[in-house]
Amino acid sequence: MCQYCGSLLSAVHWTEAGAVSARDRTRATSRRAEVLQAVLRAYGLSLRQGALVGMFHISSADGREGLARDLDEVWAVAEQMTGRPFDPLDARFTAEDADAG
User: Fold this and answer.
1) What is the model's pTM?
2) Residue 70: which of 45, 87, 93, 47 has the closest Cα?
């Protein structure tokens, strides 16, 4: 359990499977946060990476806030905050990534 926020620490998420070291995990989490910020912005939400235990802090323009430990929780919080289904594989997000790669 995190001594700062009381959150239960979970096992490594599948998105971190290729990370060998703590530095690799940090780098991957930071990159994932950048991508999530871009996707959530299109839904009127913002995301920042929490300083403690890798939590993501999600907020809306009207002041609602939520915390997520991993991608599954990010999508659930986004749906709850927007009140509509959330599709991270929407073509407007995947097309830009395809062009960049």
Assistant:
1) 0.68
2) 47
